[in-house]
ABC transporter
Amino acid sequence: MSTPQQPPTQQLAPQAAPDRQAAPGTPYSLYTSPIPVTRTHLGHALASEWTKIKSVRSTMWTLGVFLLLVVGIGLLVASQTQDEDFGNVPYTITAFFGLVLGQICLITLGVLVISSEYGTGMIRTTFTASPQRHRVLAAKLIIFFAVAFVVSAFAIGFVGLMTEAMHSGGEGKAWGGTVVMGALYVSLLGVLALAVGSMLRHSAGAITAMLGLVLVPAILPAFLMLSESMRTIGEKMMEYNAPNALAKIFGLDNENAAGGAQLGLLVGLTAAAIAGAFVLLDRRDV
């Protein structure tokens, strides 16, 4: 007896889901996110770093103390001077005394901008959200420099305006250039500190290194110049250390009031530190 033949089964191709778009040449579809995907760029990193720097308490404390030192000491010095004291110096000279101490605040903030993330482990989240590490570091450098320069220029300019108002009978030199040069110098010190913090990845170590870089050249020449063989080195260190560089910028040294050589040295040193920070950032794990 012959068995009845079964009708042939029909092979059905799977259909694509209505919310999916089928890829060419494949029976299955690929998922399309309903959320628009935007290619990230430096602007996103800048917005992120701006949010960070304005949200943490360390920024408010360090910049607050900086303003207190520069403005407070500057106005105190201005109140103790006479009109004739401003014959050969700009009115912003009173801000110099506060900047000598205030620069330490910007150095500390520069280190904390990046080292604090390494200390808490949040740097892993940052690099996960933005795998392009060089973009993150560039954004930190740009945002910090902008903040430091604006705050420094405001403090120096405010002290200059108040000093000129208090001693309107004097003949102080034009002081607009000292606002830019002084703010640029202390801001670059902070950027240098940020680069050192990126390389060392440790807050206390980076702050100590930067304090040594600022204070040792100001103290060591007094001992080096006791020796005839080391006198030349001591004189150069005395000429280019941070306090004397600021003094030249603000016109305390009549022979070289601009301080261009000192600022140029700081620019070169900062550029070298930034280059080293970028190189080490890609070569080491988080």
